[in-house]
Specification:
Number of strands: 11
Radius of gyration: 32 Å
Shape: elongated
Order of helices and strands: HHHHHHEEEEEEHEEEEEHHHH
Distance between the termini: 104 Å
Strand content: 15-25%
Largest sheet: 7 strands, antiparallel
Length: about 375
């Protein structure tokens, strides 16, 4: 199953509903966050349970600090006794990582680039653009190239037998189907080749192929050109004019990176404020504060060097904003649950309390008289 294609098709449906691919990405983020709501509730509940159990856990750690094996055994018994799983809080993060990787692969794929890569949203010029890119004009018949550029094909390719299109012609691996013949010299034509062996067709059909039309993407510049290939022997060959690529710096993507860093910093601050450890070790509390500050800085700095598409950054920002709202709402729900439990216990204690009847006290002086 091609999850990248499924993701792109789903984004296309959302964009048709909401009017743009930018709003489609935000809608996808909302859908994912809503689907993960139960897991987030479980995560927040786990963190609150950790707060309550922290003093007892620290007491076990201090008591058995010279016997790590016994400490681990006692901690496992403690977790079992209180029905607490310390890894429960990590589950939402583990689930989000494959989603992030899938969205990254989808927005960097030739299918998305050829379909909506040049889509803009608000101040974002291109949803597939990264911080540092290479300028190139798509569909002008000329590739802007560098010496080490590689190329890939869109999944859909038109194959012809004479003037008649051959239906159901598919490539087994579109991303790696097109190869560069010789070296790439900017300003001179680049020779591209597709082997007939890469087609999922019968041998008799391969022998009749005369030409093909394909959308070719430069993986480095993400420039797209529609190329006509002619059959030569066992290959389809095309020669495409080139020009030297020019590097560009996308300030709109830089702004997205800064907004992402700010949103993540705010997310960490709100999570720490709503889940402040009570009676915690001061050293541990200081470490958490440092981690809450350093993590946004480190991730933001990483995105300055790793080519993250603007659409993925848009997803991350929207995800952080929704997480802030979720954290506040879920913590209020959990606080209300805790308050209701306490009130219920108090009511039960009052209702179960024994009534003490007042005894009549006689006046001693009156009796003596």
């Amino acid at each position: 199953m091609d999850f990248t294609t499924l993701t792109i098709d789903f984004l296309k449906q959302l964009s048709n509903i909401f009017g743009s691919y930018g709003l489609g990405i935000i809608a996808l983020t909302v859908i994912i966050r809503l689907a993960m709501w139960p897991l987030n509730v479980s995560q927040q509940r786990s963190m609150k349970t950790m707060q309550m159990l922290q003093p007892k856990m620290k007491a076990i750690q201090d008591r058995y600090k010279n016997n790590p094996q016994m400490m681990q055994q006692k901690m496992m018994e403690f977790y079992k006794e209180h029905k607490f799983n310390p890894m429960a809080g990590c589950l939402p993060l583990l689930i989000q990582m494959p989603i992030f990787i899938l969205l990254y692969s989808s927005l960097m794929s030739p299918q998305f680039i050829s379909m909506a890569g040049q889509s803009n949203f608000l101040f974002i010029n291109r949803l597939d653009a990264t911080l540092k890119g290479n300028a190139g004009i798509s569909n002008d018949g000329v590739f802007s190239v560098g010496p080490r550029d590689t190329f890939s094909l869109n999944k859909n390719i038109k194959v012809y037998i004479g003037d008649k299109e051959l239906e159901n012609a598919k490539l087994t691996n579109p991303r790696n189907a097109v190869k560069v013949q010789g070296d790439i010299t900017p300003g001179e034509p680049v020779d591209l080749k597709i082997s007939l062996d890469d087609f999922d067709l019968k041998f008799s059909q391969l022998a009749q192929i005369t030409s093909a039309e394909a959308t070719v993407t430069d993986n480095n510049t993400r420039e797209i050109e529609k190329i006509t290939f002619k059959k030569q022997g066992d290959n389809l060959i095309a020669s495409v004019p080139t020009a030297a690529t020019k590097s560009s710096f996308n300030y709109d993507v830089l702004l997205l990176v800064v907004i992402f860093g700010a949103s993540m910093f705010l997310t960490q601050k709100i999570m720490m404020a709503t889940n402040k450890m009570q009676q915690a070790d001061p050293a541990q509390e200081a470490m958490q504060k440092t981690l809450g500050t350093m993590m946004p800085v480190m991730l933001t700095a990483t995105f300055l060097f790793i080519p993250i598409p603007a659409g993925v950054l848009l997803y991350l920002i929207a995800s952080n904003v929704i997480q802030i709202a979720q954290t506040v709402i879920i913590n209020k729900q959990l606080d209300n649950e805790e308050a209701n439990k306490k009130n219920k216990k108090i009511d039960e204690s009052v209702s179960n309390a024994k009534k003490v009847e007042a005894k009549e006290i006689k006046n001693v002086d009156t009796e003596n008289k």
